Amino acid sequence: FLLPAPLCLLTLLLPPLGLGVLISPAEPISQAYSLALYMQKNTSTLLQTYLQCQGSPFSDPGFSAPELQLSSLPPAAVSFKTWHALNDRERLSCAQGAFLALTQHLQLVGDDQSDLNPGSPILLAQLGAARLRAQGLLGNMAAIMTALGLPIPPEEDTLGLVPFGASAFERKCRGYVVTREYGHWTDRAVRDLALLKAKYPG
Amino acid sequence: MMDISLCLKRPSRMGDSKRMRMTSNFQWLLLTVLLLYLMNQVNSQKKRTPRDLKCITNNLQVWDCSWRAPSGAGHGAAYEVCFENGSHSCYRLEKNIKLPALLPGDHEITINPLHDFGNFISKFTLNEKNVSLIPDAPEILDLSADFSTSTLHLKWNDKGSVFPHHSNVIWEIKVLRKKNMEIVKLVTHNTTLNGRDTVHHWSWISDMPLECATHYVGIRCYIDDPQFSGRKEWSDWSPLKNISWSPDSQTKVFPQDRVLLVGSDITVCCVTQEKVLSAQIGSTYCPLIHLDGKNVAIKIRNISASESSGTNVVFSVEDNMFGTVIFAGYPPDIPQKLNCETYDLKEIICTWNPGRPTFLVGPRNTSYTLFESFSGKYVRFKRVELPTNESYQLFFQMLPNQEIYNFTLNARNPLGQSESTLLVNITEKVHPHIPTSVKVKDISSTAVTLSWHLPGSFAKIKLLCQIEINKTNSIHELRNVTMRGIENSSYLAALDKLNPYTIYTFRIRCCTDPFWKWSKWSNEKQYLTTEAIPSKGPDTWREWSSDGKNLIIYWKPLPINEANGKILSYNVSCSSDEETQSLSEIPDPQHKAEIQLDKNDYIISVVAKNSVGSSPPSKIASMEIPNDDLKIEQAVRMGNGILLTWNYDPNVTCDYVIKWCNSSRSEPCLMDWKKVPSNSTETIIESDQFRPGVRYNFFVYGCRNQGYQLLRSIIGYVEELAPVVAPNFTVEDTSADSILVKWEEIPVEELRGFLRGYLFYFEKGERDTSKMRVLESGRSDIKVKNITDISQKTLRIADLQGKTSYHLVLRAYTDGGMGPEKSMFVVTKENSVGLIIAILIPVAVAVIVGVVTSILCYRKREWEVIRLWKSLQGWKDRAVLVELACLGRGRSLPRSSGRRSCCSRPDVPKELDPWFQAPPSLQPYIQREEGALPPGCQGGLWLAWPVSRVHRWSSRVAQQKFYSRATSTSTT
Question: Family assignment (chain A) (predicted)?
């Protein structure tokens, strides 16, 4: 499957097929897998661009703050045993929930950065692109769940009222956690989809 | 201290003591003891009276006086206190007395203890000067804090109502920090008491966020009443009040999101329950200042401007990080280059430059408000996301009937504000829009109407528009048009003095009166003006055909500025006195016509026609005016072209025509012609057709009444080149010592320049030998003849050797260089006279030798001597003989006259005369015989030689002499 990346993205952003039509899960899995792979290529760039725009110590080489977490964003880290024991429904629901939260958080981070870094159009564009891709992956996952006959979890407002009074430092940290977790979740999605791809060959 | 006097009611016992008379020493001792006793008595009496009366006041209305009670007086002892204040008043009281403030001056006050162990009364003089004014400690009404700005607000009451008159009050406020109460601020604050209770406020911005540590505040006062002459003292400190922040369990850093001026100092603290390991601003670590508990702070001095997302301050604990962001920047600069103008008198556009960057972006960016004071209206500038140094702009809707606008542009950001003002009469600041919809309409072939649209409410002002007229290959022309402005309409302008059938490009820009700014130039509008009749007839020439029967008429196409349109055709006619003959119409691309004519005088006329009409005719006579006095001259290009000059000729009335052609072309010879005004005497002929090395003929004609006379005929080259061929030459005649060579002319085409001469080389040489090489002028064996007379076509080469092969070479040259060479080998004929001479000479020589020999033999005496010589036996006899021989000839023997002194010999060159040179083989004889001969007779020694030897030697020398002569003859 060697479509050029933008064309591939366009294809994958198409809405999932209507319910009730039973199709083979191989195709949506393959599409989602391709998109996840494409996303994976850009996640480290997004994180680096993001950190560069936040000033020292965020922009210092080798900056890492694994202790920073967001309660509204589920962490991607999971023990291999637990991850491997997940069934299709759990696996897809976890990813679905995470990318739903990520799309909302990426929107929030985009707004935050419009205030903090209005002069960095590249960062704002990368955040916007990441959000669109996360939405695209959500659509693909919904298609897989439909194909597998699994119920699609309802969309939730993961952010709630919490984030609006955040200080600039909290916003920077929040953005860091979101862009970092976006990368982690994309990595995990690639693994998830590879597993599903092996399980449901075309 | 107060003056105290004691009055003893008991009588003194001094009289008794005076009566004691003792001896002097004893008396003195007794006196001393007595004095000590008396003083003790006095002191004991003092201790038994009220003393140390002190009066203070805290409100200037009541004096509170107290005294020290006498010793022995128990608690609750009563006193009678009397004083004079207009009237005598006495009070019975226990401890102290509150007096109404007494009038200025001394007042006596007596205090009489009402107890029974003595009757001591204390008398004091009381004056206001002795009273201390000590106000009550102030009471803090309220201490509050604005944590966001780290500001403390203090509120207290001055209780001014208790003071009788206005006084100045100095308040001293202290701020203490942390539990160990370090003083961080001590400040005085001045107010006045105005007879009423007044609540005062004091605010203080802490350098450390108030959340970082508990802050305590106390206050005291000092009343500086100018009318009070007593001592004034500070009040006690009020009870301290404190402000503290009740932290929740979470760690927090203060202040958050603070906007600061670049270069200022700030303290940032971390309120935490965990141990803070380090703190850093950006990438710089800072020393920790420990506060209460585990709270820490850092002090940042002289902060530098932040980048867009602010400067991060981060505190690190064991497994986490906490932080805040500081935005360091500048307050807005005064808006620079504020300028307000209008494009259309409907809307005002104000532009400005923000000046120094503030380094603050996003919500902290500078906001601008443009306020107009006459109308009270304002507009706000929307935040630009990208901070730039470029111009900012705001639009302000113009108000009806308002021309003068007073604008104030206010710039504001969290660090401050600034403003710029501009008073403007907007009718003088009109910068019109770019004119649009430019259209052109014909009026005539030389005039058009130009119309354009200019949006704007210009009804009350005058417009000045500038029209740029561009013509191909011509400088552009600007014309100004002034017009009254109209409301949103099109404008018209007529343009005359244009050329017919010409492509013009128009564009327009406008400004208003008074001038402020030109609009941008409108788009260009291209327009072709209509045609007009051609203004001139074509430039005409004529040539007779080679057979002389036809006249060929040539004309040049009219230049566009004379054609005034597209030339469609030409009419050619020829007229004589009797008749006029017209040829059929000749369509345009053809510029030549041929008419069969006799040799009578005809006038040929040519007319050019376009769609509008015909040009005036160009006329030329068919016949040339004869000129017998003609010479052919030469000319070569000078600079850009060939310069032709002629003398001024008053008979030439119309013009001069210079015609030229390639000289090698067949008749009629015409490449081109050029007309020159009749007042000229020179012209330069230039043409792209001219080629180097080609001969052209130039003919200068003068015009008289349409007839032309040939004035000069010139041949010329634009550049001379070397000939391409050598002249063909042949040998016409050969003799034993000469050759006659003849050559032909080189054709003009191959000559490629004016012939300047020939070079003829000749040398001995044969074909196919090494001498077949390039002739070099420097070689001595080559003879060169330069023939500069170009009419010469033969050459005789003389003084050659017979029956010898000669190599002949001929080449021609021009100013452009040498042509190639042509060579030939010729052998001269045999020479018969020479052969005869060669036979006769040896014969003649032999005869001459015979004759000479005979003469020599005939000379007898010499022969006899020789014979005698032979007969002599010894050397001595021979010497005598020599002597005799000399004497016999009648001469004395010179001593040093050389070998020829005795017998002279014919004069022959010394080097060729072997007789005078004894061969080396004979030297021993000579030396030996010299020694034997008498001195003075050495010259005759050659005679004393054995004849046999002489003969052999002389014959060998003669042989050498012959060969040598033969050799020299052959070499000469």
Answer: Belongs to the IL-6 superfamily.
